[in-house]
Amino acid sequence: MAGRPRKLNKKLEKQILELIADGLTIRQIFERPDVDYSWSSFRNELVNSAELMEKYNHAKQLAIDLELSSLKDKRLELEAKIESGEIDGKAGQNLVNLYKIIVASSQWSAAKIVPKKFGKAAELTIKGDDKQPLNITWGK
Predict the structure, then answer these.
(1) Alpha-carbon distance 140 to 122, whole Å?
(2) Alpha helices (runs of H) in the chain, residue ranges in sequence order
(3) Residue 135, strand partner residues
(4) Is 123 helix (H, G, I), strand (E, B) or coil?
């Protein structure tokens, strides 16, 4: 028989949010032996606390910034290895293709988590008056 569910205290909340900001997945965090809490309990806390939800979203944004920075580091390392000949052309091309997939996945995640910063927002510009036709253009 299991004991009473543990309450989310400030220390545990801080630990979970830091792990999220460090880029760990929800599954990784709640499978850790040093996190004595469950995802379902944390999710319930998120749903019931706007303040915690804001902190959670901020931690996710920090994780995306870390991931994008890490991808840049990996890209620079790959470029250096290809340029120096450490990696041959065929292997280099395979790594470049893999890198493209990883970047696309990260861009998708970033656009979902921080759409204002990383999303592909369509901008509508309307020009015209009673003597000119209405022109609609989509900005990038």
Answers:
(1) 7
(2) 10-21, 26-31, 39-48, 50-84, 89-113, 115-118
(3) 127
(4) strand
Query: Any idea what DSSP says for residue 34?
Result: T
Residues in Cβ contact with 20 at an 8 Å cutoff, skipping those fewer than 6 apart: 26, 29, 56, 59, 60, 63
Give dist(CA 9, CA 14) in Å, integer. Answer: 9
Task: State the amino acid at position 98 in one-letter form.
Answer: L
Model confidence pLDDT, tens digit, residues 46-103: 999 999 999 999 999 999 889 888 888 888 888 888 888 898 878 888 888 888 888 8
SS3 46: helix
What is the amino acid identity at position 45?
Answer: E
Helices 50-84 and 89-113, axial angle in degrees (round to 10): 160
Q: What is the pTM of this model?
A: 0.69
Taking the C-alpha atoms of residue 21 and residue 66, their distance in angstroms, rounded to an integer, is: 8
